[in-house]
Amino acid sequence: MMANLDKTQSDSTCVAGGEDNFRGYVTLGCNEKRLASFSGLQKGWNGYGAEPIPEGVIGKVRSLLEKLKVQPYISPTGRMSIQVERENAFGDYMEFEVFEDKIMMYSRIKGVETEKTVSDSEFVEAYNGFVD
User: Fold this and answer.
1) Which residue range forms the structural domain that includes residue 52?
2) How many other CB atoms are there within 10 angstroms of residue 57's CB atom?
3) What is the reported pTM?
């Protein structure tokens, strides 16, 4: 069963270990700090010429994170997007790549892989359903 961390939890420890998630539990406050750091990325930030993450992508992810029951792990990509991901104790995995104009979803649940484009509301519904 996934822990449902309160989104107002102190951010003194951004990530706490846990068996349910390969990256541990992440707080909303920690993700907000990570998003703020993505704003400072300059051209070539990844060593391969990546463009900065657009503010529109950062704002979109910030808005989506506020609607999630359990916080995911987030990271910038070299494709001007932000990856949002979660894995559970059963090896099921869900990943979203958030661009300004679309969200790409990939999941592997009980061995079945799915890849598709989803709307903002479908992202929230799919992610929250996954962590329930």
Assistant:
1) 15-131
2) 22
3) 0.83
| Domains in the chain, number | 1
User: Which 3 state secondary structure label does DSSP give 60?
Assistant: helix
In a domain, 7, yes or no: no
Share of the chain above pLDDT 90, in %: 74
Going across the sheet that includes 112-118, the strands are 73-76, 82-87, 93-98, 103-109, 112-118
Amino acid at position 102, single letter: K
Q: How many CA atoms lie within 13 A of 79 on its CB side?
A: 12
Which tokens hold the place of 34? Answer: 């990570």
| Residue 70 φ/ψ, nearest 5 degrees | -135, 135
pLDDT(26) > 90: no
